[in-house]
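> run fold Quinone oxidoreductase family protein
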Amino acid sequence: MMQTQVIRIHAHGDSRVMQLENHTLAAPQAGEVLLRQTAIGVNFIDTYHRSGLYPLSLPSGLGVEACGVVEAIGAGVIEFKQGDRVAYAGGAVGAYASYRVMPVDKLVLVPAGVSDEIAAGTLLRGMTAQYLLKQTFPVHVGQTILFHAAAGGVGQLACQWARELGAIVIGTVGSEEKAAVARAYCDHVIDYAHFSEHVREITGGKGVSVVYDGVGADTFAGSLESLARRGMLVSFGNASGPVPAFEPAILAQKGSLFFTRPTLGHYTSTRAELVNTAADYFYAVRRGFVKPEIGQSYALADVAQAHQDLALRKTQGSTLLRP
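> ok
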């Protein structure tokens, strides 16, 4: 038996519903390992789970991303051993904990050269950038792409990576402060206002090969207007609300466009897909193609402050909890 501190909620609501509790963990069963967690990632989806926007079965833990060290293994586990550094991003909620029992099929090895903090705070975003740029619409040398929210968590990683792949990157931002951040890794940084007009100016009227759009409702129409003939709109998020219903004929009218709504889970549903996607992201970090930023960290007991700062846009880069 192992004692662990965990953050749990017994009702949905604001940051005050999160409670630090002590729990007893059973020994790992077949196909499981016990992790001593060293760093925990905080993501916007955690606030959606807490508030009830994405309802959970209560009571519940929170958090989907962390890094840790394998302390014990269950029967039949051969892929990992005691002392291995591993990380995960996805699966059942409950990452806000000092120790956790996890199924091995959700874990990936963290290679030397990648810190616990980077693994815990950026794996989810890094794998998202990987599948968007290299699987959903594979980016090639010379293509011009548009990435919305270029200064955001996924945007920062993806724009750096896209430039390494040889793309000309146009990034949108909502403020001069965010523009200053995005200029470090975008070829062109533009404001959301009238962005499709700016895209046409930059591309000599041709438009871009692909738009990666995690904003949703507010940018949908402009994203279609920004695409070149036979371009693709990759709608992977809805920060401003879901994309409104539209007639498929509009895709033909705008230039025989493609539209897709992918999710990470569908690109990492097999063991091989998960391992390969994570390994490619870690390789990019180790080679310096992508330089993630850990902006701030909080003690596990201070999780309410972490959520408040995230909601108020006071954070930069990735946010961590320290078990």
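The mean pLDDT is 94.
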